[in-house]
Amino acid sequence: MPATPETLPDPERLIVAVDTGGTFTDAVGRRGDRVAVAKVPSTPADPAAAVLDAVRRVAAALGGDADELVHGTTVATNALLEERGAETWLVVDAGFEDLLAIGRQTRPELYALHVAPRESLVPRPLTVGVRGRIDASGAAVEPVDLGALHAAIDAMDARPRSWAVCLLHAGVDAAREREIRDVILARCPDDRVTLSSEVSAEPREVERATTAVASAMVQPVLATYLARLEPAAASVCVMSSAGGRLSLVEAAARPVTTATSGPAGGALAAQEIARAVVAREPRLRGVVTFDMGGTSTDVALCVGAVPMRRESRVGRFSLSVSALDIHTVGAGGGSVARVDAGGGLRVGPRSAGADP
Question: Would the pTM of this model clear 0.90, i.e. be above it?
Protein backbone atom coordinates (compact mmCIF):
# COMPACT_ATOMS: atom_id res chain seq x y z
CA MET A 1 0.00 0.00 0.00
CA PRO A 2 1.51 3.40 -0.96
CA ALA A 3 2.36 5.70 1.92
CA THR A 4 -0.09 8.50 2.68
CA PRO A 5 0.25 11.41 5.10
CA GLU A 6 -1.80 9.38 7.57
CA THR A 7 0.47 6.32 7.41
CA LEU A 8 3.84 8.09 7.41
CA PRO A 9 5.68 8.04 10.77
CA ASP A 10 5.36 11.14 12.89
CA PRO A 11 8.71 13.00 12.56
CA GLU A 12 8.43 14.10 16.19
CA ARG A 13 8.02 10.58 17.55
CA LEU A 14 11.01 9.35 19.50
CA ILE A 15 11.77 5.80 18.38
CA VAL A 16 14.43 3.89 20.31
CA ALA A 17 16.01 0.57 19.38
CA VAL A 18 17.91 -1.35 22.06
CA ASP A 19 20.05 -4.47 21.73
CA THR A 20 21.06 -6.04 25.01
CA GLY A 21 23.70 -8.72 25.41
CA GLY A 22 25.54 -10.36 28.24
CA THR A 23 28.25 -7.68 28.35
CA PHE A 24 26.95 -4.44 26.79
CA THR A 25 23.57 -2.88 26.10
CA ASP A 26 23.39 -0.55 23.09
CA ALA A 27 20.67 1.94 22.17
CA VAL A 28 20.03 4.24 19.22
CA GLY A 29 17.22 6.78 19.15
CA ARG A 30 15.78 8.84 16.33
CA ARG A 31 13.51 11.85 16.40
CA GLY A 32 13.05 13.20 12.89
CA ASP A 33 16.54 13.59 11.42
CA ARG A 34 18.28 13.70 14.81
CA VAL A 35 20.00 10.59 16.15
CA ALA A 36 21.53 9.76 19.53
CA VAL A 37 23.30 6.61 20.75
CA ALA A 38 24.15 5.16 24.15
CA LYS A 39 26.32 2.23 25.26
CA VAL A 40 26.14 1.00 28.84
CA PRO A 41 27.38 -2.12 30.64
CA SER A 42 24.73 -4.79 30.91
CA THR A 43 23.41 -5.63 34.37
CA PRO A 44 23.33 -9.46 34.62
CA ALA A 45 21.47 -9.46 37.94
CA ASP A 46 18.72 -7.31 36.42
CA PRO A 47 19.11 -7.02 32.62
CA ALA A 48 16.18 -4.61 32.35
CA ALA A 49 18.05 -2.01 34.40
CA ALA A 50 20.63 -1.50 31.62
CA VAL A 51 17.88 -1.25 28.98
CA LEU A 52 16.01 1.38 30.98
CA ASP A 53 19.26 3.27 31.57
CA ALA A 54 20.13 3.25 27.85
CA VAL A 55 16.63 4.42 26.89
CA ARG A 56 16.80 7.25 29.44
CA ARG A 57 20.16 8.45 28.07
CA VAL A 58 18.92 8.50 24.49
CA ALA A 59 15.65 10.20 25.48
CA ALA A 60 17.56 12.85 27.44
CA ALA A 61 19.79 13.56 24.44
CA LEU A 62 16.81 13.97 22.10
CA GLY A 63 14.37 15.49 24.60
CA GLY A 64 11.16 13.97 25.94
CA ASP A 65 10.10 10.41 26.65
CA ALA A 66 10.39 7.48 24.24
CA ASP A 67 7.26 6.87 22.18
CA GLU A 68 8.30 3.49 20.82
CA LEU A 69 10.88 0.93 21.91
CA VAL A 70 11.99 -1.87 19.58
CA HIS A 71 14.03 -4.36 21.53
CA GLY A 72 16.40 -7.14 20.52
CA THR A 73 17.22 -9.28 23.53
CA THR A 74 19.62 -12.13 24.23
CA VAL A 75 18.14 -12.89 27.65
CA ALA A 76 16.54 -16.10 26.37
CA THR A 77 19.57 -16.89 24.19
CA ASN A 78 22.03 -16.65 27.05
CA ALA A 79 19.74 -18.54 29.43
CA LEU A 80 19.56 -21.43 26.95
CA LEU A 81 23.31 -21.38 26.19
CA GLU A 82 24.12 -21.48 29.91
CA GLU A 83 21.17 -23.82 30.63
CA ARG A 84 19.89 -21.76 33.51
CA GLY A 85 16.24 -21.23 34.09
CA ALA A 86 13.31 -22.55 36.04
CA GLU A 87 13.04 -26.13 37.21
CA THR A 88 11.00 -27.74 34.44
CA TRP A 89 8.82 -30.85 34.53
CA LEU A 90 7.95 -32.72 31.34
CA VAL A 91 4.66 -34.54 30.68
CA VAL A 92 4.72 -37.13 27.87
CA ASP A 93 2.79 -40.22 26.82
CA ALA A 94 3.34 -43.23 29.06
CA GLY A 95 6.21 -45.25 27.64
CA PHE A 96 7.96 -42.16 26.24
CA GLU A 97 9.54 -40.97 29.48
CA ASP A 98 13.04 -41.35 27.99
CA LEU A 99 12.14 -39.34 24.89
CA LEU A 100 14.72 -36.59 25.45
CA ALA A 101 17.46 -38.92 26.68
CA ILE A 102 17.19 -41.08 23.54
CA GLY A 103 16.57 -38.19 21.14
CA ARG A 104 17.32 -39.09 17.52
CA GLN A 105 20.10 -41.50 18.58
CA THR A 106 22.74 -39.33 16.91
CA ARG A 107 26.15 -39.94 18.43
CA PRO A 108 28.35 -36.93 19.25
CA GLU A 109 31.47 -39.13 18.90
CA LEU A 110 30.89 -41.37 15.89
CA TYR A 111 33.85 -43.74 16.33
CA ALA A 112 34.15 -43.80 20.13
CA LEU A 113 33.64 -47.28 21.58
CA HIS A 114 32.76 -46.01 25.03
CA VAL A 115 30.56 -42.93 25.01
CA ALA A 116 29.25 -41.40 28.20
CA PRO A 117 25.48 -41.00 28.00
CA ARG A 118 24.44 -37.40 27.46
CA GLU A 119 22.55 -35.69 30.22
CA SER A 120 18.88 -35.21 29.40
CA LEU A 121 17.50 -31.68 29.26
CA VAL A 122 14.92 -32.80 31.86
CA PRO A 123 16.07 -35.30 34.51
CA ARG A 124 14.15 -38.57 34.45
CA PRO A 125 12.61 -38.01 37.95
CA LEU A 126 11.01 -34.80 36.62
CA THR A 127 9.29 -36.61 33.73
CA VAL A 128 5.69 -37.81 34.03
CA GLY A 129 4.16 -40.37 31.66
CA VAL A 130 0.37 -40.22 31.30
CA ARG A 131 -1.91 -42.71 29.60
CA GLY A 132 -4.38 -41.81 26.87
CA ARG A 133 -2.98 -42.03 23.36
CA ILE A 134 -4.31 -41.02 19.93
CA ASP A 135 -3.11 -42.13 16.51
CA ALA A 136 -1.84 -39.97 13.64
CA SER A 137 -5.39 -39.24 12.49
CA GLY A 138 -6.48 -38.08 15.94
CA ALA A 139 -8.56 -41.17 16.74
CA ALA A 140 -8.42 -42.41 20.34
CA VAL A 141 -6.30 -45.52 20.87
CA GLU A 142 -6.21 -45.60 24.67
CA PRO A 143 -8.51 -43.92 27.22
CA VAL A 144 -7.14 -40.96 29.15
CA ASP A 145 -5.81 -41.68 32.64
CA LEU A 146 -4.12 -38.79 34.45
CA GLY A 147 -3.48 -40.72 37.66
CA ALA A 148 0.31 -40.46 37.26
CA LEU A 149 0.05 -36.68 36.90
CA HIS A 150 -2.06 -36.33 40.05
CA ALA A 151 0.37 -38.58 41.94
CA ALA A 152 3.33 -36.44 40.86
CA ILE A 153 1.59 -33.25 41.97
CA ASP A 154 0.65 -34.85 45.30
CA ALA A 155 4.34 -35.47 46.01
CA MET A 156 5.42 -31.88 45.25
CA ASP A 157 6.00 -29.01 47.62
CA ALA A 158 4.39 -25.60 47.19
CA ARG A 159 7.15 -24.02 45.05
CA PRO A 160 6.04 -22.66 41.65
CA ARG A 161 7.29 -24.71 38.71
CA SER A 162 7.38 -24.69 34.94
CA TRP A 163 5.84 -27.51 32.94
CA ALA A 164 6.31 -28.62 29.34
CA VAL A 165 3.68 -30.90 27.83
CA CYS A 166 4.44 -32.92 24.69
CA LEU A 167 2.10 -35.69 23.59
CA LEU A 168 2.10 -37.74 20.41
CA HIS A 169 0.24 -36.20 17.45
CA ALA A 170 -0.63 -33.04 19.42
CA GLY A 171 -0.39 -31.10 16.17
CA VAL A 172 -3.44 -33.04 14.93
CA ASP A 173 -5.45 -32.82 18.17
CA ALA A 174 -4.23 -30.77 21.12
CA ALA A 175 -7.24 -31.48 23.37
CA ARG A 176 -5.26 -33.84 25.65
CA GLU A 177 -2.46 -31.29 26.11
CA ARG A 178 -5.01 -28.63 27.02
CA GLU A 179 -6.68 -31.01 29.47
CA ILE A 180 -3.36 -31.62 31.21
CA ARG A 181 -2.74 -27.87 31.41
CA ASP A 182 -6.15 -27.36 32.99
CA VAL A 183 -5.42 -30.02 35.62
CA ILE A 184 -2.01 -28.56 36.49
CA LEU A 185 -3.29 -24.98 36.78
CA ALA A 186 -6.34 -26.07 38.80
CA ARG A 187 -4.09 -27.71 41.37
CA CYS A 188 -1.04 -25.41 41.05
CA PRO A 189 -2.33 -21.97 39.98
CA ASP A 190 1.10 -20.34 40.31
CA ASP A 191 2.78 -22.77 37.92
CA ARG A 192 3.48 -22.05 34.25
CA VAL A 193 2.54 -24.56 31.55
CA THR A 194 3.88 -24.65 27.99
CA LEU A 195 2.16 -26.84 25.40
CA SER A 196 4.17 -28.24 22.50
CA SER A 197 1.14 -27.77 20.23
CA GLU A 198 1.23 -24.02 20.87
CA VAL A 199 4.95 -23.39 20.46
CA SER A 200 5.63 -25.87 17.65
CA ALA A 201 2.80 -27.87 16.05
CA GLU A 202 5.22 -30.15 14.20
CA PRO A 203 4.95 -33.94 13.68
CA ARG A 204 8.36 -34.84 15.16
CA GLU A 205 7.88 -35.31 18.90
CA VAL A 206 11.58 -35.03 19.86
CA GLU A 207 11.88 -31.54 18.37
CA ARG A 208 8.50 -30.49 19.80
CA ALA A 209 9.50 -31.70 23.25
CA THR A 210 12.85 -29.92 23.13
CA THR A 211 11.20 -26.68 21.98
CA ALA A 212 8.53 -26.88 24.67
CA VAL A 213 11.11 -27.58 27.38
CA ALA A 214 13.28 -24.65 26.23
CA SER A 215 10.29 -22.31 26.24
CA ALA A 216 9.12 -23.50 29.66
CA MET A 217 12.60 -23.25 31.17
CA VAL A 218 13.17 -19.60 30.24
CA GLN A 219 9.57 -18.35 30.51
CA PRO A 220 9.76 -17.13 34.13
CA VAL A 221 13.07 -15.40 33.44
CA LEU A 222 11.85 -13.65 30.30
CA ALA A 223 8.39 -12.78 31.66
CA THR A 224 9.89 -11.02 34.69
CA TYR A 225 12.36 -9.22 32.45
CA LEU A 226 9.76 -8.03 29.94
CA ALA A 227 7.43 -6.79 32.68
CA ARG A 228 10.21 -4.45 33.82
CA LEU A 229 10.37 -2.91 30.34
CA GLU A 230 6.75 -1.73 30.19
CA PRO A 231 7.53 1.79 31.52
CA ALA A 232 10.35 2.29 28.99
CA ALA A 233 8.08 3.66 26.25
CA ALA A 234 4.45 4.14 25.32
CA SER A 235 4.78 1.17 22.95
CA VAL A 236 7.24 -1.67 23.53
CA CYS A 237 7.85 -4.60 21.21
CA VAL A 238 10.45 -7.36 20.97
CA MET A 239 12.14 -8.63 17.82
CA SER A 240 11.39 -12.27 17.09
CA SER A 241 13.89 -14.85 15.88
CA ALA A 242 12.26 -14.61 12.46
CA GLY A 243 12.97 -10.87 12.22
CA GLY A 244 9.43 -9.71 12.99
CA ARG A 245 8.08 -7.90 16.02
CA LEU A 246 6.20 -9.31 19.02
CA SER A 247 4.20 -7.53 21.70
CA LEU A 248 5.33 -8.02 25.29
CA VAL A 249 2.40 -10.36 25.88
CA GLU A 250 3.25 -12.48 22.83
CA ALA A 251 6.95 -12.67 23.71
CA ALA A 252 6.23 -13.63 27.33
CA ALA A 253 3.78 -16.36 26.26
CA ARG A 254 6.18 -17.92 23.72
CA PRO A 255 9.70 -16.96 24.83
CA VAL A 256 11.32 -19.54 22.56
CA THR A 257 10.39 -17.33 19.58
CA THR A 258 12.90 -14.77 20.93
CA ALA A 259 15.78 -17.26 21.27
CA THR A 260 17.74 -15.49 18.52
CA SER A 261 16.10 -12.08 18.89
CA GLY A 262 19.29 -10.05 19.22
CA PRO A 263 21.20 -12.00 16.54
CA ALA A 264 18.25 -11.55 14.14
CA GLY A 265 18.57 -7.77 14.39
CA GLY A 266 22.31 -7.93 13.84
CA ALA A 267 21.98 -10.12 10.75
CA LEU A 268 19.27 -7.94 9.22
CA ALA A 269 21.28 -4.78 9.87
CA ALA A 270 24.49 -6.27 8.42
CA GLN A 271 22.63 -7.48 5.35
CA GLU A 272 21.11 -4.04 4.81
CA ILE A 273 24.48 -2.31 5.17
CA ALA A 274 26.09 -4.77 2.73
CA ARG A 275 23.32 -4.45 0.15
CA ALA A 276 24.88 -1.39 -1.53
CA VAL A 277 28.33 -3.03 -1.58
CA VAL A 278 27.00 -6.18 -3.22
CA ALA A 279 25.11 -4.08 -5.79
CA ARG A 280 28.36 -2.32 -6.80
CA GLU A 281 30.38 -5.55 -7.00
CA PRO A 282 28.72 -8.04 -9.36
CA ARG A 283 31.31 -10.67 -8.44
CA LEU A 284 29.96 -10.80 -4.90
CA ARG A 285 27.17 -13.33 -4.50
CA GLY A 286 26.48 -12.46 -0.90
CA VAL A 287 27.97 -11.69 2.48
CA VAL A 288 28.72 -13.50 5.72
CA THR A 289 27.63 -11.62 8.81
CA PHE A 290 29.66 -11.96 12.02
CA ASP A 291 28.24 -10.63 15.27
CA MET A 292 30.36 -11.24 18.38
CA GLY A 293 29.00 -10.33 21.77
CA GLY A 294 30.38 -10.99 25.20
CA THR A 295 28.68 -14.37 25.63
CA SER A 296 27.97 -15.69 22.14
CA THR A 297 28.92 -15.24 18.49
CA ASP A 298 26.44 -15.31 15.61
CA VAL A 299 27.09 -15.80 11.90
CA ALA A 300 24.79 -15.92 8.87
CA LEU A 301 25.24 -16.38 5.12
CA CYS A 302 23.15 -13.84 3.19
CA VAL A 303 22.72 -14.31 -0.55
CA GLY A 304 20.15 -11.70 -1.55
CA ALA A 305 18.41 -11.97 1.82
CA VAL A 306 18.89 -13.60 5.20
CA PRO A 307 17.54 -17.15 4.71
CA MET A 308 14.86 -18.65 6.96
CA ARG A 309 14.79 -22.08 8.54
CA ARG A 310 12.32 -24.14 10.53
CA GLU A 311 14.85 -25.39 13.07
CA SER A 312 17.47 -23.54 15.08
CA ARG A 313 20.09 -24.76 17.49
CA VAL A 314 21.09 -22.81 20.59
CA GLY A 315 23.56 -24.78 22.67
CA ARG A 316 22.05 -28.24 23.23
CA PHE A 317 18.55 -27.08 22.33
CA SER A 318 17.15 -27.89 18.89
CA LEU A 319 14.29 -25.43 18.48
CA SER A 320 11.52 -26.15 16.00
CA VAL A 321 10.38 -22.58 15.30
CA SER A 322 10.70 -20.22 12.34
CA ALA A 323 13.90 -18.19 12.56
CA LEU A 324 16.48 -16.45 10.44
CA ASP A 325 19.22 -18.90 9.49
CA ILE A 326 21.81 -17.80 12.05
CA HIS A 327 24.34 -20.07 13.72
CA THR A 328 25.02 -19.30 17.38
CA VAL A 329 27.94 -20.66 19.39
CA GLY A 330 28.54 -20.22 23.09
CA ALA A 331 31.83 -18.36 22.74
CA GLY A 332 32.21 -14.59 22.72
CA GLY A 333 34.56 -11.86 23.81
CA GLY A 334 33.90 -12.51 27.49
CA SER A 335 33.77 -16.31 27.44
CA VAL A 336 35.57 -18.10 30.27
CA ALA A 337 38.34 -20.51 29.23
CA ARG A 338 39.16 -23.66 31.16
CA VAL A 339 41.19 -26.85 30.87
CA ASP A 340 39.08 -30.00 30.79
CA ALA A 341 39.84 -33.39 32.34
CA GLY A 342 41.79 -34.47 29.26
CA GLY A 343 44.00 -31.38 29.28
CA GLY A 344 42.23 -29.75 26.33
CA LEU A 345 41.32 -26.08 26.19
CA ARG A 346 37.60 -25.30 26.29
CA VAL A 347 36.04 -21.87 25.79
CA GLY A 348 32.48 -21.07 26.92
CA PRO A 349 29.59 -21.32 27.25
CA ARG A 350 30.11 -19.65 30.63
CA SER A 351 30.84 -15.95 30.26
CA ALA A 352 32.42 -13.37 32.51
CA GLY A 353 29.60 -11.04 31.46
CA ALA A 354 29.46 -7.38 32.35
CA ASP A 355 30.53 -7.97 35.97
CA PRO A 356 33.45 -10.43 35.87
Answer: no
